[in-house]
Specification:
Helices cover 68% and strands 0% of the residues. The protein is mostly helical. The chain has one domain (16-272). It is globular and about 60 Å long. The relative contact order is 0.17.
């Protein structure tokens, strides 16, 4: 299902959306709304927020990874894009640590930081592009360099995993300021999904199969008590409706709203506790 090249039209309900599709900002807005429900459950589950709020949040990460892949393709400067994600990741890690120590809550673990997942996704997109170009141009040096870069985050993640059992908590916190594949939201499967979204860009059938495979795999591998991640498959709806346009809106809104609403909810939850 492709919507590239369609003329703009005034919104007239569901029929119009099916005809013109969703802009990138519309997809992000849907993701933000679902994300708020998810975090309301995370912060206030003790107060009785229903579990289906959590279910609504399962498609959010794939939606943002899809838009991350699109943003990485369209950005004028990939270096600036990655630097922005790294800055947000470090700032949010620092804020998570500070709030956890200052306002400790027995019922909520403050580990949210999707910027790390998006950063690793962007880095791996660069590494895979570099590897593909090296193979196409038959440049051995570029192939070796890209292969080493692909392995570097894996090695660091292994070091981090070993450090969890041997280093003091201060050192572990310091090491966590470099994103790794173990503690990042969604882990390795999320990063792989984001890279595949990029590699299959414009091929909606392949993107559909990729996301569907992820949902099926989650259903098979998750324990029966928490078998809900397969609901990520519903991210297909906005992904297939995406029309390739950015749309109106502030591109920095998500960077501010994401941590702001999490910390607001956390502080309120701490106050209630």
């Amino acid at each position: 299902m492709m919507f590239y090249g369609l003329k703009s039209a005034e919104p007239r309900g569901v029929t119009n959306i099916l005809e013109t599709g969703l802009t990138g900002n519309a997809v992000k807005t849907i993701g933000i709304i679902l994300m708020v429900f998810d975090h309301l459950h995370q912060m206030f589950w003790v107060q009785g927020v229903p579990v289906w709020f959590y279910w609504l949040g399962r498609p959010v990460l794939p939606m943002f990874l899809f838009m991350c892949a699109e943003g990485f393709y369209h950005t004028r400067s990939r270096k600036a894009y990655l630097l922005r994600l790294f800055t947000c990741f470090v700032c949010m890690n620092a804020a998570n640590t500070a709030l956890t120590f200052a306002l400790f809550n027995d019922d909520v673990m403050l580990i949210n930081n999707v910027f790390g997942t998006m950063l690793l996704t962007g880095l791996y997109i660069l590494f895979v592009r570099m590897l593909r170009e090296g193979i196409e141009e038959k440049r051995a040096g570029r192939i070796i360099a890209s292969a080493l870069l692909i392995l570097l985050p894996v090695l660091y993640s292994l070091i981090f995993a070993i450090a969890l059992n041997s280093l003091p908590w201060q050192a572990i916190i310091a090491l966590s300021f470099i994103p790794n594949l173990i503690t990042t939201e969604g882990g390795i499967p999320a990063v792989i999904l984001g890279v595949l979204f990029y590699l299959c860009r414009g091929k909606r059938l392949m993107q559909t199969l990729t996301l569907s495979a992820g949902g099926i795999l989650s259903f098979i591998t998750d324990s029966e008590s928490c078998r809900v991640q397969w609901l990520m498959i519903f991210a297909l709806i906005p992904v297939l409706l995406y029309n390739g346009r950015r749309g109106k809106g502030n591109k920095y809104f998500f960077y501010v709203f994401y941590p702001a609403h999490i910390y607001l909810f956390y502080i309120i939850a701490w106050a209630i506790q």
